[in-house]
Amino acid sequence: MEEVEIVVAHSERATLRVGGVFLKVDADQARLDTEAEAMALAPVPTPEILWRKPSVLALAALPGAALGRLGAPSTAPPAAWAAAGAAIRTLHDAPLPPWTGRRRQGPAELAAELDRECGALVARGILPAGLVARNRRLAEGALRAWTPVFAHGDLQVDHVFTDGAGVTGVLDWSEAGPGPALFDLATFTVGHQERLGDVLSGYGAGVDPAAVRAWWSLRALLGVRWLVDHGFDPFAPGCEVDALTRP
């Protein structure tokens, strides 16, 4: 008898797996609509939509395995990471989707959000002031104007599946829309920073590794408090706080 596996769950949404079917349950129907539209437009492999109902999207499982997991070393070969980089570039080179996207802030709005989050992290005692201040300075490198691309918006490493050296699919498109390319690259590599060179070898020219590092700090500072408040552990090995404490 097959069991129900809780892949991820919090107050906003949950993903369940039953055999070869994933059920995404979301309190925000707009996120599910965005996910379906993005998968239809994205020029990279995506899961098959089996059916849609209000607040629920059923997806077929992808072949292969996730490229990695936060907090665990990846055994995937460099060629698989390069293939993922090439797939990300294909997505970023595609025409922009016809919606505004959730990550529509410009540098000024991001800077204001970053200041609020840094203040909250220190005021609540989540992180020491020195660590926050150092990474706030590093994050300055991300607060520059960018040209929007077709961005995934939540490109965690376990959302990309590979089989050997090829990408078999990319999951979880509910945050997709026009956005900064470097946010996707930083999200993808933040827990496996030693793989950045492999990813960029597939992604191609035009990316400064130092700029990706700035986005590692920005992304982590913006995410730690949300993770704590929703029952996740950003202090786990390889996760957000690790990214902040690395030299």
Outline the fold blueprint.
Elements lengths: L3 E6 L3 E6 L2 E6 L2 H13 L7 E5 L2 E5 L4 E2 L11 H15 L14 H17 L5 H11 L9 E3 L8 E4 L2 E5 L6 E3 L1 H9 L6 H8 L5 H21 L10 H6 L2
Antiparallel strand pairs: 1-2, 2-3, 3-5, 4-5, 6-8, 7-10, 8-9
Helix pairs in contact: 2-6, 3-4, 3-7, 4-7, 5-7
Summary tags:
transferase; 40% helix; 10 strands; five-stranded antiparallel sheet; transferase activity; Phosphotransferase enzyme family protein; alpha+beta; 247 residues; three-stranded antiparallel sheet
Give a quick summary of the entry.
With 247 residues, the protein is an alpha+beta fold. It has 8 helices and 10 strands. Strand 2 and strand 3 (21-26) form a beta hairpin.
Number of domains: 1
Strand content: 15-25%
SS class: alpha+beta
Major sheet: arrangement of strands: 1-2-3-5-4
Radius of gyration: 18 Å
Q: What is the top-level CATH class? A: Alpha Beta
The residue ranges in which pLDDT falls below 50 over 5 or more consecutive positions are none
Task: Give a written overview of the molecule.
GO terms for molecular function: transferase activity. The protein is α+β, with helices and mostly antiparallel strands. The chain has a single domain, classed as Alpha-Beta Complex (Aminoglycoside 3'-phosphotransferase, Chain: A, domain 2), CATH 3.90.1200. Helix content is 40%, strand content 18%. It has a five-stranded antiparallel β-sheet. Strands 6-8-9 form a three-stranded antiparallel β-sheet, covered by helices on one side. Helix 5 packs across helix 7. It is globular. The chain starts with a strand and ends with a helix. The mean pLDDT is 92.
